[in-house]
């Protein structure tokens, strides 16, 4: 998990060769701007109505956390297999995710003394899910992934088969892309509706 740890402080201007056009647009803080844009695209994908209406993720605070976590995990897996500076992108993207979780807790009125404890639980949940999904995704194990997703995303022992098919398809699609494509256009996820009951 060290590759996806929460650290930062990289000189992306020197690391990211070939990104001159993008960097010229955001000279003040190109790294932060690109990471913020990438994270926004992941968050937007996790709010697709089809994830809730077609794939059965509960449209609740917990369900939205599960959807965001799943999409983050899928993108981090893709970045893990790409050449540098993809590892640096993964670290900063993970940092953006936890900063967003921290800000959300504070917006909900969670007190300063309680936030660290809540954030520890969120981190444990996130990395626990990443570990639980990693094996089935590596092995294209639909049943194993459906079981893990059922427990986490549905909160039940019923397998999340349609969601597992969606995640497997997304994993393959993301891993087929390049770092430049991810940074230029953002991660492209399948349409959830295609994996719902009608498309299953």
Automatic annotation (TrEMBL):
Q: Where are the transmembrane segments?
A: none
What Pfam families is this protein classified in? Ubiq_cyt_C_chap (PF03981)
Domain Ubiquinol-cytochrome c chaperone, by residue range, is 54-189
Q: Which InterPro entries match?
A: Ubiq_cyt_c_chap (IPR021150), Ubiqinol_cyt_c_chaperone_CPB3 (IPR007129), Ubq_cyt-c_CBP3-rel (IPR014569)
Homology family: Belongs to the UPF0174 family.
Know the name of this protein? Cytochrome b pre-mRNA-processing protein 3
Native source species: Microvirga lupini
